[in-house]
Specification:
This protein is α/β, with parallel strands linked by helices. The chain has helices spanning about 30-40, 60-65, 100-105, 155-165, 190-205, 240-245, 250-265, 275-285, 295-310, 315-335, 340-345, 355-395, 410-435, 440-475, 480-505, 510-515, 520-530, 570-580; strands at about 5-10, 20-25, 45-50, 70, 80, 85-90, 90-95, 110, 120-125, 130, 145-150, 170-175, 210-215, 225-230. Strands 1-14-13-2-12-3-4 form a 7-stranded mixed β-sheet, sandwiched between helices.
Length: about 575
């Protein structure tokens, strides 16, 4: 985890009990990586539930068994095709060339690709008619292919969960079911609430349910970032257990609603990926540039902006703002700029030849130093990327909930690295042994891991330098300078609109939310005062990372503040690495 991700930030660790039964409930947007991230950052040993099908895979299965994961038989993995096609009329399924009496059994589920709904079969009337417990939610008017999901026996899985919780252990589960790449939670499966109440009923001790929000920043990319937030425990009320003994479905449904609310409180939920990007842009414009936010405050601000924009997504002013934010974001991308560079723009300064020369020297110098590591690992990285993208397309094509299948990319890269690195290192060792002899080959191989890691760190800087060189090289072009001037003005206008809209719609989220504002009026006033000209040596507010935890705004001196082209590499790195890039 620490190799794949450049930075892993943890919030709310104090909410995790040090002892006693615990159920960790997380959102599921990065396939097997989600469990690895939580396992590596949790202070207690966690046994995760994993699809039994995954245990048959060489790398993932070996890792899952070593982590003592509990296998779960999923209906979707036991799906089977059936003869004919179907249409529906309410809760009645009408077959066309079907053999329901032989292909389908009662209590099994039907599934079509266009929806994630899987209604349960109540009664098989004849070969061409089935009655469902509940319909698909809409009528299917055109004959459609369907699959049958078998009814499975989960007794062994529940016994393993109850045994772990009874011993005071920790269970990890992703109640959305399968992994996905949507920017919002999918409907939760009831299994987690049945486990919690069943363990309570069997052992007399309610397990502590902790919602875990995983927020990825380009989580499918190597050396990206992730934030983990452990939310407040889900409360068991005294009426739930007696209700569960009489009516399992109702009690489980009530607890499931509480779990979903808790999970939404630690995750960012928006209607689309474009909406998510625009929300990130709005956050950058809304937050005063001299204000430092802790990781917790950053996540809270993002969630509130996402919730507010989503709640009022049909309001004309919100739709117009989101459209303009998207255009601004695309203009930044086309201009090879980041928002921080636009903030620091100064058209009155001469062309920074010195900075350009320094960065060119650094770029080619570091590239030369990283070359040995690149020669060894670049073929693996290239193949892993192509293979992972192919698997993503296959996953998206076979799923009714995935958008582009990006949730499988990180897992595929890690699996391929586990598979290919030993082969490459063995080949390298054999080659060195043949040419240099055994002692020197062993010595060289001992140096490979540190050299590889050093090359990785250097390549990160090389990439950032390369991205920062593009605007430097384009700056002399008059058309490019005109474009930058328009971006500067557009940003100022959008910033004003975002802040005004938050002031207008914020109180409608409720007094409790609005009275506990993350960015106070004093922060905006401080920003305004900091930007006023002075006869003294200029003191410029430095925009710091949201990951730097401080209690409020901070200012630092800069003797010669750099303009847009001279923004320090650390500031460029902050923008390139911290902002979500779908």
């Amino acid at each position: 985890v620490r190799i794949f991700f450049q930075d892993v930030q943890l919030v709310g660790e104090s909410n995790l009990p040090r002892k006693g039964p615990v159920i960790l409930v997380g959102n599921h947007q990065n396939q097997f990586v989600d469990a690895l991230v939580l396992f590596s950052q949790c202070s207690r040993d966690v046994q995760f539930l994993i699809a039994a099908k995954s245990l048959t895979k060489p790398v993932v299965g070996t890792l899952a068994r070593n982590l003592r994961c509990i296998p779960v038989q999923r209906r979707i993995d036991a799906a089977r095709s059936a003869t004919g096609r179907i249409t529906t009329n309410g809760n009645v399924v009408i077959g066309h060339g079907t053999h329901f009496l032989t292909d389908v059994s009662e209590a099994e589920q039907l599934q079509i690709k266009s929806t994630g709904t899987t209604p349960v079969v109540k009664e098989i009337i004849d070969d061409e008619h089935i009655e469902l417990m509940e319909g698909f939610g809409f009528d299917i008017t055109e004959p459609t292919d369907f699959t049958v999901l078998a009814k499975l026996n989960h007794r062994q899985m529940f016994d393993s969960v109850y045994s772990t919780l009874g011993a005071g252990g920790v269970i990890g589960i992703f109640p959305e079911g399968g992994s996905h790449d949507r920017p919002e939670l999918l409907p939760l499966k009831a299994g987690v609430s049945i486990m919690a109440l069943g363990a309570y009923d069997r052992h007399g001790v309610p397990p502590t349910i902790i919602p875990c929000g995983l927020t990825y920043f380009s989580g499918h990319r190597f050396r990206s970032r992730v934030m983990i937030e452990f939310g407040e425990p889900i409360q068991f009320t005294s009426d739930l257990l007696p209700m569960f003994k009489k009516d399992k479905k109702t009690a489980s449904g009530i607890l499931l609603e509480r779990i979903e609310r808790g999970l939404r409180n630690v995750t960012i939920n928006v209607p689309s990926n474009e909406w998510l990007r625009c929300t990130h842009v709005a956050r950058r414009l809304y937050q005063p540039k001299n204000l430092t936010l802790s990781v917790e405050s950053y996540l809270r601000l993002m969630r509130r902006l996402a919730a507010g924009f989503t709640m009022f997504q049909h309001e004309p002013q919100v739709l117009k703002l989101m459209k303009d934010l998207h255009k601004y974001d695309m203009a930044l991308k086309d201009s090879h700029l980041k928002d921080q560079q636009v903030v620091s723009m100064d058209f009155n300064r001469p062309y920074p030849w010195r900075i350009l020369f320094q960065r060119l020297v650094m770029f080619f110098g570091l590239l030369l130093v990283a070359l040995p590591g690149l020669i060894v690992h670049l073929p693996i990285a290239g193949y892993a990327k192509l293979r992972a993208q192919r698997e993503a397309r296959k996953a998206a094509a076979s799923s009714s909930v995935k958008l582009e299948g990006k949730d499988v990319i990180a897992s595929q890269k890690i699996v391929l690295a586990f598979t290919l690195l030993p082969v490459v290192y063995t080949t390298l060792f054999s080659t060195l042994w043949y040419w240099l002899g055994l002692p020197l080959a062993l010595l060289a191989m001992c140096a490979v891991p540190p050299i590889s890691f050093a090359s990785l760190m250097i390549v990160e800087r090389v990439v950032l330098l390369g991205q920062s060189l593009i605007p430097l090289l384009l700056w002399p072009l008059p058309s490019y300078r005109n474009l930058l001037a328009s971006l500067f003005q557009r940003r100022a206008t959008l910033q004003k609109r975002v802040r005004e809209l938050v002031e207008e719609l914020g109180p409608k989220l409720g007094k409790e939310v609005w009275n506990q504002r993350i960015v106070a009026n004093a922060d905006f006033e401080y920003e305004s005062q900091a930007e006023q000209p002075s006869n003294e040596n200029t003191v410029w507010p430095q925009r710091q990372s949201y990951a730097s935890a401080t209690s409020g705004p901070s200012r630092v001196d800069r003797a010669n503040p750099l303009d847009m082209l001279g923004t320090s590499l650390d500031s460029i790195q902050e923008e390139l690495e911290h902002e979500l890039d779908i």
